[in-house]
Design goal:
By secondary structure, the protein is α/β, with parallel strands linked by helices. It has 2 domains: 2-179 and 376-397, Glycogen Phosphorylase B (Rossmann fold, 3-Layer(aba) Sandwich), CATH 3.40.50; 183-374, Rossmann fold. The chain has helices at residues 15-26, 48-53, 70-87, 97-109, 130-146, 155-164, 189-199, 221-231, 250-259, 284-290, 305-312, 325-328, 345-355, 360-374, 377-397; strands spanning 2-10, 31-38, 59-60, 91-95, 114-119, 149-152, 173-175, 207-212, 239-244, 264-265, 275-279, 293-296, 316-320, 331-332, 335-336, 339-342. β4, α4 (97-109) and β5 (114-119) form a beta-alpha-beta unit.
Amino acid sequence: MIKILRIINRFNLGGPTYNAAYLTKYMPNEYSTLLMGGVPEEHEVDSLHIVKSLHIEPVIIPEMSRSINGFNDFKSYLLIRKMIQNYKPDIVHTHASKAGLLGRLAAVHEKVPVIVHTFHGHIFHSYFNSFITNIFLKTERYLAKKSNAVIAISHQQKRELAELLKISSPDKFEIIPLGLDLKKFSEDLPHKRSVFRQMYNIADDIIAIGIVGRLVPVKNHYLLIDAVKLLKTLTDKKFEIIIIGDGDLKKKLMQYVKDNNMSYRTNKYEANADFYFTSWIKEMDMAYAGLDIVTLCSKNEGTPVSLLEAQAAGRFIVTTNVGGVQDILKKEAGIIVNGFLSSTFAHALLNAIENFAHQNIQIHSVISPVIIEKYSYERLVKNMDQLYKNLLRNIDNK
């Protein structure tokens, strides 16, 4: 039996939880996996329901969260070391930055045979000042040397990590895209659209433009607000921005909307406004069905799960060109056919509103099957099984 200790930053909604859960549940029978992770931040939604729906009982590390806290982080590190001593894994596989730091340090000190890390995103720009960022870079370069493999989730991310940031040599990296269960996002769209629109009081003649994610600086919601201010002078189409998510910036974003003489609402009983702050929505398959356009305006990303889910639902995309975004939009003859990569965000959004908002049925028939197959959890499991066996074989041959 090949024993894996899998560690993620925290159990919050997002790609790492889904990937860790599917890899824990669906790896071949010759593997036994123990899943560990920290706790969500105050404004994040707990994702333990995802893990437990797969009948997985994870080990929670109460002291480990996204925020930096020397005392709690050291306690988390000691807890991980103790778990390694007791569980004696053949492989420690960490997902995302905090788990990658603490988990790999613990695995190195406990002499675990195989150490693997997956970058779901990275924190090397748009998060911290240059001094702190440089410390993180040096730490990651050290940890990469101690890892048997480092996984990037897109070709673009590998180029950034290996060639620009020099985390490690390109041959240390493996490209294994995210794996999700996207089928439900393409099913029963008309019914789900009707339910969502009624539930959130969005009229049929309103173009619903959604953005999904934490309300934090790196997600750059201010860019979207600025774009909407300009759009209101350029089009007479009726639209509403549906901001799905929560975070520390929520009140500041609301105030910014007001300061720019625009309106917002926070529940369905209020009149339609320029912006609708819904907080988190768990039934995202229903939400995407109810939207016309899905946007993302981040300064830094790995592979945004929201854009994969939106494409599985056949939605049109408008996004900044960051991280692995280029790798997940469908191209035909070099032309992106299901979205805009934007350096001039407002005008890309204007083009989508004017020309693409009601073409989602055609987009759905072209895009959904490709995305669903390419980013399936079955493919993820197959890729990871091959990697693990190659790494273990290399260890045996030394």
